[in-house]
Specification:
- Keywords: DNA-binding, Transcription, Transcription regulation.
- Belongs to the LysR transcriptional regulatory family.
- By secondary structure, the protein is α+β, with helices and mostly antiparallel strands.
- It folds into 3 domains: 5-73, Winged helix-like DNA-binding domain superfamily/Winged helix DNA-binding domain (Arc Repressor Mutant, subunit A, Orthogonal Bundle), CATH 1.10.10.10; 92-159 and 241-268, D-Maltodextrin-Binding Protein, domain 2, CATH 3.40.190.10; 163-233, D-Maltodextrin-Binding Protein, domain 2 (3-Layer(aba) Sandwich), CATH 3.40.190.
- It is 41% helix and 20% strand.
- It contains 9 helices and 10 strands.
- β3, α5 (105-114) and β4 (119-124) form a beta-alpha-beta unit.
- It is flat and about 60 Å long.
Length: 269
């Protein structure tokens, strides 16, 4: 059976919004059209993807699995189409993924000074699946923090990112100049696997509202500074290693040049 990419894109939008009206608005189609396409997809797959009520849309187990698959398939297909167009138009392109808080701009400037004709894309990666853009083809190289799935990847160590405790400015520990891990015993921690938030913004909102403390990389703390939060050094918390990552089977000259330039530039930074 061939999977219709348009129907899959429609389903992914609906799974994201859990609302036919909002999904149809995002897709610029009429709501009845979206409903018909989703029903057709269910018929083609031979399984129920949604539980519909008058007020909400929930995913079945099959629907959740399809949504997870769609989040990998759709970006991969889009990246493949873009690469085909680039080849047809003679465009050289380098796509660089980066983890929250890590800044790759200095390396890009150094690379662009030598390769001004190369188009650069930057792709933010979610903190719990940093390697996803490399896996689905959206990026050729990533600037990331360990740990992540390193299978099939070549890793170039860059440096270390200290961890700090992020807490509300009103917290009893907030007046300390620094902390140890023992100081955090008994505190509610918003870190994997205790509670995985969908974004850093969500995590910081939870912290600011008194729902816990999180150990975060110093670079993230600097990039997402806000007046109602404070970040304190944790002297015995191990730092997180930063690195460049690239698929082991990628050997393009352009990519090699970027890795050489980025390794020196980012280590110096």
């Amino acid at each position: 059976m061939d999977l219709d990419m348009r129907k899959l894109r429609y389903f992914a939008a609906l799974a994201e919004h859990r609302h036919f009206g909002r999904a149809a608005e995002q897709l610029y189609i009429a709501q009845p059209v979206l409903s018909r396409q989703i029903k057709a997809l269910e018929q083609e797959l031979g399984c129920t993807l949604l539980l519909r009520t008058t007020r909400s849309v929930e995913l079945t187990a099959a629907g959740k699995q399809l949504y997870e698959e769609a989040q990998q398939i759709l970006p991969s297909v889009a990246a493949a189409v873009r690469r085909v167009h680039d080849v047809d138009q003679g465009i050289q392109r380098l796509a660089i993924a980066f983890s929250p808080g890590l800044h790759v701009s200095e390396a890009i400037r150094a690379f662009t000074s030598r390769h001004a004709d190369v188009e650069i894309d930057v792709i933010p990666s979610r903190w719990w699946e940093q390697d996803r853009p490399l896996r689905d083809g959206r990026a050729q190289v990533g600037y990331m923090r360990r740990q992540f799935d390193e299978s099939g990847l070549r890793i170039i160590p860059i440096g270390h990112d200290p961890r700090v405790a992020c807490m509300p400015v009103t917290h009893p520990l907030a007046s300390r100049p620094e902390l140890t891990s023992a100081d955090l015993d008994g505190e509610r921690m918003l870190d994997v696997p205790n509670r995985r938030t969908s974004s850093l913004e969500e995590k910081f909102e939870l912290i600011a509202s008194g729902h816990g403390i999180a150990l975060i990389p110093l670079s993230v703390a600097r990039s997402y500074s806000r007046p109602d939060l404070i970040h304190l050094p944790v002297t015995d918390a191990p730092a997180i290693e930063t690195c460049l990552a690239v698929s082991v089977d990628r050997r393009e000259r352009l990519l090699r040049d970027f890795l050489e330039i980025a390794t020196v530039t980012l280590r110096d930074a």
